[in-house]
Amino acid sequence: MKPLIIANWKCNPTTLEEAKLLFDSVVRRIKGVTNVETVICPPFVYLPILGASAFAQGFGGLRFGSQDCFWEKKGAYTGEVSPTMLKDLGCEYVIIGHSERRRYFNESDEMINKKIKAALSANLKVILCVGETLEEKKSGGTEKVIESQIKNGLEGIIGKGPLSDLILAYEPVWAIGTGKACGIPEARAVNLFIRKIIKNSPIIYGGSINSQNANDFIKKAEFQGFIIGSVSLDPEEFTKLVKNIDLIS
């Protein structure tokens, strides 16, 4: 498969005008990139507008994803967005279990499991985020935490057939937004550990990735792509990263 690069804009930008400028800047810069699957995950409110913009520009190489979803198809769930709604908007991917959802919204493995099942049923490709905190890392609990998050998040899913629509994203919580990416040998060891649990699904990395260190995570740590946070809001740096990976793929 092509390397997968997910741009997670999180709760940014704050206006539609800024979102359009960012999106258009990325689109202009990555034209001609053929060896990378690039996915933009903007806030919910921008999804239909940016999707229409991409269609109008005739840019078919870009994919869209959501930063989250609910586990029900419809109903009296004020404020929620269902996988079916996302699919109808043209989304192909959905991020589930991001550490910020776990931390700030108290999402449990049980809730994440329900979301994954609902998203897969709607034929969305799921990006399941797993990763340890600094305290868990220092206590030697990295593998225990990751194994628990994977097995609990995928309860009733593992062993039920091929997981062709599942991507595992290793995002050490202590590396997100800190400028301190995981060391390559350590990241590779975690990658191989995850591979023992999930045999065939792609495994990507997130946490202080930039255009300077990205290649090593592909070549040396053997990841199959990235989930990018703050750098995805910088169109020049983000597209430089995408083009660097495009060249080595």
Order of helices and strands: EHEHEHEHHEHHEHEHEH
Class based on secondary structure composition and strand pairing: alpha/beta
| Approximate helicity band | 40-55%
What is the terminal separation in angstroms?
A: 10 Å
Which class in CATH terms? Alpha Beta
Structural domain tally: 1
Beta-strand fraction estimate: 5-15%
The major sheet is characterized as: 8 strands, parallel
How would you name the CATH homologous superfamily? Aldolase class I
- CATH arch. level architecture: Alpha-Beta Barrel
What does this entry look like structurally?
- The chain is an alpha/beta fold and 249 residues long.
- The chain has a single domain, classed as TIM Barrel.
- The chain is built from 10 helices and 8 strands.
- The chain has helices at 16-30, 47-56, 83-88, 99-104, 109-121, 134-138, 142-153, 184-197, 214-219, 235-248; strands at residues 4-8, 37-41, 62-66, 93-96, 125-130, 166-170, 203-205, 225-228.
- An 8-stranded parallel sheet has the order 7-6-5-4-3-2-1-8.
- Strand 3, helix 3 and strand 4 form a beta-alpha-beta unit.
- The radius of gyration is 17 Å and the shape is globular.
- It starts with a strand and ends with a helix.
- The mean pLDDT is 95.
List keywords for this structure.
249 residues; alpha/beta; TIM Barrel; eight-stranded parallel sheet
Summarize the structure.
With 249 residues, the chain is an alpha/beta fold.
Give the topology.
Layout: E1 4-8, H1 16-30, E2 37-41, H2 47-56, E3 62-66, H3 83-88, E4 93-96, H4 99-104, H5 109-121, E5 125-130, H6 134-138, H7 142-153, E6 166-170, H8 184-197, E7 203-205, H9 214-219, E8 225-228, H10 235-248
Parallel strand pairs: 1-2, 1-8, 2-3, 3-4, 4-5, 5-6, 6-7
